[in-house]
């Protein structure tokens, strides 16, 4: 570990100081104008960010989506003005959704003046997809650093696959993340740092703002970790900068990172929150509220700044950044693209892969091997059919990579293709990732992987989605097509009991905007589900699978599984399609509905079975289709799902019947549980008959 700086820092002067103070004052002014926000940390870290961006970051503001750019993650999302100031001063261009670079500046000064106001490119916390140059959405502390691990893993994987003789540096970008006390306290950072150390991700650098302040006051209240020792124990290189204003020491620390080839680097920077504000520096008062007009004035006086100027960018500042990061970034980016033509000539297939991956397209014929499953009453667990489908897809989509949080043997998500390999410090080309028992970090890492454009999947027991909801929510918020495969979808886990039985998790997932949840009924629905999921561009998907076997439905007798793409479809119908009652099932309960349907039909009851694997896909259909599946005049409806009934009334009506589970399940063999909770054909038939009677009386 490098010692703290011993001699006083060489004072920063000239245009460097002016540029740093511009970052500081823009941040203060924006927060003051919004009358809300976090001024203190941008003021303190302006020199750190300046040093990194201006002297080291390989980033071209003119092309902020250049694939080999260094990534900068602001894990302390509340310090968003630090990033917005940088984006403005370096002149980062806005990029359209289809990756064409547009002429506009991503963050014009007017956007900073409208910080935190509706539709400003400067929302409260940095949002990916909304503001070009923001590499990932941050705000929930710890998420940014964990996501940066995914980016670093992604870079290693890209390098291992695409760097070739003569093109050793095609992918060699570094990932920097700026974090604070909050990030260090959150458990997710420990999970992520532990994995990063284990994988020896030497392209990863976290910068820890050790300012000893959080919202409630001094960290002595809650946090006495020896962070340096903790990270050394994780296998990181740790170095320290004793003064956030010391550009030379900061540069030395960044060079130490660049020269470290066998492990990630943590740079601990001692800083003063609210630096320069005479009454608020080093207090939590500088954290999350405007300084106040007078304090802003006094801080500006301290900086030698014109006290009455607001949003002031002195002459020469833009040019200074243009000559630094701008010039360096452009040269690196142009040199990279100049070589891409040669790469395409020498490695046309790899170049084609890269193009498609970067544009979130799939290879030609990606779905040609997806299996069909023949009817079989004994059937197959959907986790088993999913294993076959996943491997058939992985065969034709080389950048489909993923793994589990130590549950691959149970979730069946291993890519077993020859040469797929295991991702490790010794083999960055492996397609099977091992996240360890670190669900929360796994979600963030998947986001990071998706942000560098590989196609990631992660898996676990459905119950443990609770442990990763924070990351999963960011997948949805960022509109990333991350694939989550969750098995052991309900009480089918049997003897493991309530701790392992998801009940309310489906409702949780379905309530999340932008997330596609699919609970397929059999092998063929699994195949169709993967087909839908792999074609998603902007939505994460949650695939919910059984541990136990479910019958493979006879599609010569019942409707084809292709109906899955519409979210719900009529699987079996009354003759003439005018049912008295509709049975709606998902996943393992669809087969039960069919059994009940056959009995009802024998009894002369006109029943319909709707398989409804995905509410979201169904809700996306036009009204005509939705009403053809669930005709409004047929009010007798029964839903069957081994989960909470929360939300089902939307499809069954408040007078419909929901066969569901209202407790946390129980520990017993599945047979006993099915009886206890009423998941059998008799119960469904009885519910159907009483629904018919109820609605006839009313009608
Ligand atoms: C997961 C999570 N919990 C709580 C918060 C609310 N919050 C925002 S900033 C902050 C304090 C962060 O302290 P630190 O990281 O030291 O930042 P500093 O005050 O030094 O800028 C908290 C608790 C959050 N954003 N995310
Ligand atoms: Mg702090």
**Whole-number mean pLDDT:** 96
Tally of separate helices: 24
Low-confidence stretches are 1-6
Q: Helix fraction? A: 25-40%
Main beta sheet: 6 strands, parallel
- The count of strands amounts to 22
Calculate the terminal CA-CA distance, rounded to whole Å: 80 Å
- Bound small molecules, which ones? thiamine diphosphate, magnesium ion
With strands numbered from the N-terminus, the spatial order across the biggest sheet is 12-11-13-14-16-15
- Structure class: alpha/beta
Q: Using only CA atoms, what is the Rg? A: 28 Å
What global shape is seen?
elongated
Strand percentage, roughly?
5-15%
Write the layout of secondary structure elements.
Elements (H helix, E strand, L loop, with lengths): L13 H21 L5 H17 L14 E4 L5 H10 L3 E3 L5 E5 L3 H5 L29 H20 L12 E5 L1 H5 L1 H12 L5 E7 L2 E2 L2 E2 L8 H8 L2 E5 L5 H12 L6 E6 L22 H11 L13 H30 L1 H11 L17 E6 H15 L3 E5 L3 H4 L20 E3 L4 H13 L3 E7 L7 H9 L5 E5 L17 H6 L5 E3 L4 H12 L6 E4 L4 E4 L16 E4 L8 E5 L3 H14 L4 E5 L3 H5 L3 H7 L7 E4 L8 H4 L4 E3 L10 H8 L3 H18 L1
Parallel strand pairs: 1-4, 4-5, 5-9, 8-9, 11-12, 11-13, 13-14, 14-16, 15-16, 19-20, 19-21, 21-22
Antiparallel strand pairs: 2-3, 6-7, 10-17, 18-20
The structure holds thiamine diphosphate and magnesium ion.
Task: Report what the structure shows.
It is elongated and about 90 Å long. The chain is built from 24 helices and 22 strands. It is 40% helix and 14% strand. Helix 19 (589-602) links the parallel strand 19 and strand 20. It has a six-stranded parallel β-sheet with strand order 12-11-13-14-16-15, sandwiched between helices. A five-stranded parallel β-sheet has the order 1-4-5-9-8, sandwiched between helices. By secondary structure, the protein is α/β, with parallel strands linked by helices. Bound molecules: thiamine diphosphate and magnesium ion (MG).
């Amino acid at each position: 570990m490098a010692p703290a700086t011993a001699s006083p820092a060489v004072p920063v002067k000239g245009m460097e100081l002016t540029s740093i103070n511009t970052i500081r004052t823009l941040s203060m002014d924006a927060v003051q104008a919004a009358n809300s926000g976090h001024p203190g940390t941008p003021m303190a870290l302006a020199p750190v960010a300046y040093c990194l961006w201006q002297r080291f970051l390989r980033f071209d503001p003119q092309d902020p989506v250049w694939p080999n750019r260094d990534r900068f993650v602001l894990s302390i999302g509340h310090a968003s003005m630090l990033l917005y100031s940088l984006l403005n001063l370096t002149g980062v261009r806005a990029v359209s959704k289809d990756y064409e670079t547009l002429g506009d500046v991503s963050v014009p000064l007017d956007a900073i003046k409208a910080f935190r106001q509706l539709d400003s490119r400067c929302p409260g916390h940095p949002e990916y997809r909304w503001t070009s140059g923001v590499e990932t959405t941050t705000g929930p502390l710890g998420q940014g650093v964990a996501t940066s691990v995914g980016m670093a893993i992604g870079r290693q994987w890209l390098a291992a696959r695409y760097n070739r003789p003569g093109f050793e540096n095609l992918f060699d970008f570094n990932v920097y993340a700026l974090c604070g006390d909050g990030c260090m306290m959150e458990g997710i950072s420990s999970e992520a740092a532990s994995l990063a150390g284990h994988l020896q991700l030497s392209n990863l650098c976290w910068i820890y703002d050790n300012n000893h302040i959080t919202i409630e006051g001094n960290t002595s209240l809650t946090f006495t970790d020896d962070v340096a020792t903790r990270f050394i124990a994780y296998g990181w290189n740790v170095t320290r900068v004793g003064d956030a204003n010391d550009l030379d020491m900061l540069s030395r620390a960044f060079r130490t990172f660049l020269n470290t080839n066998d492990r990630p680097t943590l740079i601990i920077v001692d800083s003063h929150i609210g630096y320069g504000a005479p009454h608020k520096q080093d207090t939590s008062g500088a954290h999350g509220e405007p300084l106040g007009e007078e304090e802003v004035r006094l801080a500006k006086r301290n900086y030698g700044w014109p006290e009455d100027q607001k949003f002031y960018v002195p002459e020469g500042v833009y040019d200074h950044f243009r000559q630094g990061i701008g010039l360096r970034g452009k040269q690196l980016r142009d040199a990279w693209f100049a070589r891409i033509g040669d790469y395409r000539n020498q490695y046309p297939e790899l170049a084609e892969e890269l193009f498609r991956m970067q544009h979130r397209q799939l290879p030609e014929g990606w779905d040609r091997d997806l299996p069909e499953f023949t009817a079989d009453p004994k059937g197959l667990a959907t986790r088993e059919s999913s294993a076959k489908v996943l491997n058939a897809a992985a065969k034709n989509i080389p950048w489909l990579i993923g793994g589990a949080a130590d549950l691959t043997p149970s979730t069946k998500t291993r890519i077993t293709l020859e040469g797929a390999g295991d991702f490790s410090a010794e083999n960055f080309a492996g397609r099977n990732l091992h996240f360890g028992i670190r669900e929360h970090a796994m979600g963030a890492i998947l986001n990071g992987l998706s942000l560098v454009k590989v196609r990631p999947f992660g898996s676990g027991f459905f119950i443990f989605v609770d442990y990763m909801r924070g990351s999963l929510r960011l997948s949805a918020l960022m509109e990333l097509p991350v694939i989550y495969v969750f098995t052991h979808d309900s009480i089918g886990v049997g003897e493991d009991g309530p701790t392992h039985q998801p009940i309310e998790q489906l409702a949780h997932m379905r309530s999340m905007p932008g997330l596609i949840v699919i609970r397929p009924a059999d092998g063929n629905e699994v195949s169709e589900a993967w087909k839908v999921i792999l074609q998603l561009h902007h939505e994460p998907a949650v695939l919910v699978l059984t541990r136990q076997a479910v019958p493979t439905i006879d599609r010569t007798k019942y409707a084809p599984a292709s109906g899955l793409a519409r979210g719900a479809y009529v699987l079996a119908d009354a003759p003439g399609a005018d049912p008295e009652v509709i049975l709606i099932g998902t996943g393992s309960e669809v087969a039960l509905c069919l059994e009940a349907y056959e009995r009802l039909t024998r009894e002369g009851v006109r029943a319909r079975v709707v398989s409804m694997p995905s509410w979201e896909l169904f809700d996306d259909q036009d009204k005509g289709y939705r009403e053809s599946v669930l005709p409004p005049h047929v009010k007798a409806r029964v839903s069957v799902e081994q989960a909470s009934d929360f939300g089902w009334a939307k499809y069954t009506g408040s007078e419909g019947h929901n066969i569901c589970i209202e407790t946390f399940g129980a520990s017993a063999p599945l047979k006993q549980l099915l009886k206890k909770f009423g998941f059998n054909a008799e119960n469904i038939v009885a519910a159907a008959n009483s629904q018919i009677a109820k609605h006839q009386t009313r009608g």
